[in-house]
Amino acid sequence: MSRAVILDADTVTSGDVSLEPLTSLIDTTVFGFTAPDEIATNIGDTEIVLTNKCRITEEVFLKCPNLKFIGLFATGYNNIEIEAATKHGCVVANVPGYSSDAVAQHTFALILNHFSKIHEYNEYVQSGSWSKSKLFTHFEIPLNELSGKTIGIIGYGAIGKSVAKIAQAFNMNVLVYTRTGSINTLEEVLKGSDIVTLHCPLNDGTKELINAETLSMMKPTAMLVNTSRGGVINEKDLAEALKNGKIAFAAIDVLTMEPISPECPLLGLPNCVITPHVAWAPIETRVRLIGLVRDNIRAYLEGNPINNVAR
């Protein structure tokens, strides 16, 4: 009988979202967290493995020859050595599109926080400064409208399209760059945008796409947003651009090293906001994710795998 192991359940639930849709489908051993040197041991002779971020390498496949199905709690699959999975006849099923609305929402939360200065004005009120004012209003921290601004979207899958739809509702101009069938060139997007937002996968073609050279193309007043993958940005180059006024502001939800390194050059910069990889994580999104992972397992058990990226 098939069995399953969840390697890193704590990355999808803190007890607020039930794993019962999975555990009721198949006999499942649940680990809250698995360190890199524990991956092969925790998998053992199990056929079905569910994971969010654990790295499954050729070495793991060699140590775990019964492994035939990896179900990802994610759309991205750069933590899986796909060539090795294919070589060992292992299905790798991701979950496309489950968090598109959530990530688009968080993207605009970051944008609106910057343009409407929500955090700064709340601090002003909470400090007691407004209560001491003679005026009913206080607008000394500059505010800007989104209407009429240009947003450049790099990566135009489901999330990029959702971001474009929201931008259009704000009466913004939209530029789009994608490596296949692009509407605009990368240079046009970087030079022409007041906001550049990243929604591309991390691969050999996008690694450190945002670097000193590409940052130099952006407006000095521009904002950069990243809710895709941390490795798309050279963080040292971005820190230098922010310090030197090459661009005005950055809002980042993903980093090259997660959790963030204490040495990350973006930490402590006054013109950089960082959230801890939460754009994908509303409760509704995670409930949907677990249901779709269940669908992937069921399809595999029935002999008709779906969403297999290891073909």
Structure description:
- By secondary structure, the chain is α/β, with parallel strands linked by helices.
- It is 32% helix and 14% strand.
- The longest helix has 19 residues, at 283-301.
Topology:
Blueprint: E1 3-6, H1 20-23, E2 27-30, H2 39-43, E3 48-51, H3 58-63, E4 69-72, H4 82-87, E5 91-93, H5 100-116, H6 118-126, E6 150-154, H7 158-169, E7 173-177, H8 186-192, E8 195-198, H9 212-215, E9 223-226, H10 235-243, E10 249-252, E11 272-274, H11 283-301
Parallel strand pairs: 1-2, 1-3, 3-4, 4-5, 6-7, 6-8, 8-9, 9-10, 10-11
Secondary-structure element string: EHEHEHEHEHHEHEHEHEHEEH
Would you identify the regions where 5 or more consecutive residues have pLDDT less than 50?
A: none
Number of helices: 11
Count the E strands. 11
In terms of structural class, how would the helical and strand content be classed? Answer: alpha/beta
Largest sheet: 6 strands, parallel
Please report the distance between the alpha carbons of the first and last residues: 25 Å
Helix content: 25-40%
Strand arrangement within the widest β-sheet reads: 7-6-8-9-10-11
What characteristics describe this protein?
311 residues, alpha/beta, six-stranded parallel β-sheet, five-stranded parallel β-sheet, 32% helix, globular
